[in-house]
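Retry 2 of 3 after timeout on previous attempt. Resubmitting structure tokens to design endpoint.
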């Protein structure tokens, strides 16, 4: 019995490594910020707010875990042919497809449970959300807009969090959806530059494969240039003040730094740009904006 439990725990650990569970930090802070804005607007009690925030976290973790696991299953054969990804858990045989499917189904169940606990509209929209985050894995097979689909997967999180708190949608939160969508699409283009030769050889539809690395990097820069614009519009629409603007400035500087790390002739620091800098973008956004929403900053 002990050996069986240890085996399951080992597989679970490997699965969490496979889906890079720690990178849930990318989208979660934006969803939580939207939830804090919605809680403030709705005037929820502390107890009700904590309950909503807890289920939002559960839903986000379940949805992302399902999406990443499905992506690894869908791409397993391609990953085996790509030298950069051949050592991933499924191609390398560290995990079985059967266990990955079981984890995927469990993640979907957790997501649906959380959606039902939040409110009826969340539960009704849950299949749409799953179709989006799971369907993304196939988009690079037929469209160069795959990066924008991934952006929408993460960008939908703030709108979903608003719905989770209020049971409806406020158009103002779509500024945050736009910001996250553009940010994600931009950094995904950077990441895809690593696989330029493989994507061309395999006939995959990434922007680097279609436009070339240099022009794809310019597209990413343009997308990221509009991120602070969307955030400033969001701050203005909710009447936020100094800390929100300071956080937006910090994010703008981080995005500039991110693009200084990569060039068409040197992609050696893509991982630093993708993982480290973007992690700081989401964390600093939540710290500055969360403090502003909770009333720790001066209001204009």
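Retry 2 succeeded. Sequence:
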């Amino acid at each position: 019995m002990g050996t069986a439990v240890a085996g399951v725990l080992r597989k679970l650990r490997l699965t969490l490594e496979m889906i890079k569970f720690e990178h849930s930090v990318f989208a979660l802070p934006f969803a939580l910020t939207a939830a804090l804005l919605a809680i403030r607007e709705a005037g929820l009690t502390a107890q009700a707010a904590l309950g909503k925030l807890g289920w939002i976290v559960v839903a986000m973790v379940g949805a992302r875990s399902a999406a990443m696991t499905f992506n690894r299953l869908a791409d397993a054969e391609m990953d085996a042919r790509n030298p950069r990804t051949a050592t991933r858990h499924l191609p390398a045989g560290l995990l079985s497809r059967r266990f990955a499917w079981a984890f995927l189904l469990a993640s979907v169940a957790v997501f649906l449970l959380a959606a039902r606990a939040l409110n009826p509209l969340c539960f009704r929209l849950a299949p749409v959300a799953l179709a989006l985050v799971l369907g993304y894995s196939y988009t690079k097979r037929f469209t160069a807009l795959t990066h924008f689909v991934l952006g929408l997967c993460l960008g939908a999180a703030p709108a979903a969090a608003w719905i989770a708190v209020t049971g409806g949608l406020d158009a103002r939160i779509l500024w945050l959806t736009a910001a996250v969508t553009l940010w994600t699409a931009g950094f995904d283009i950077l990441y895809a530059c690593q696989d330029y030769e493989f994507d061309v050889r395999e006939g995959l539809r990434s922007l680097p494969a279609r436009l070339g690395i240099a022009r794809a990097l310019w597209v990413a820069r343009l997308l990221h240039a509009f991120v602070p614009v969307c955030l400033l519009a969001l701050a203005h629409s909710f009447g936020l003040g100094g800390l929100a603007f300071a956080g937006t400035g910090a994010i703008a500087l981080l995005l500039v730094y991110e693009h200084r790390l990569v060039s068409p002739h040197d992609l050696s620091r893509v991982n630093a740009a993708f993982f480290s800098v973007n992690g700081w973008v989401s964390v600093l956004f939540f710290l500055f904006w969360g403090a502003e929403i909770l009333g720790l900053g001066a209001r204009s």
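Attempt log closed. The radius of gyration is 20 Å.
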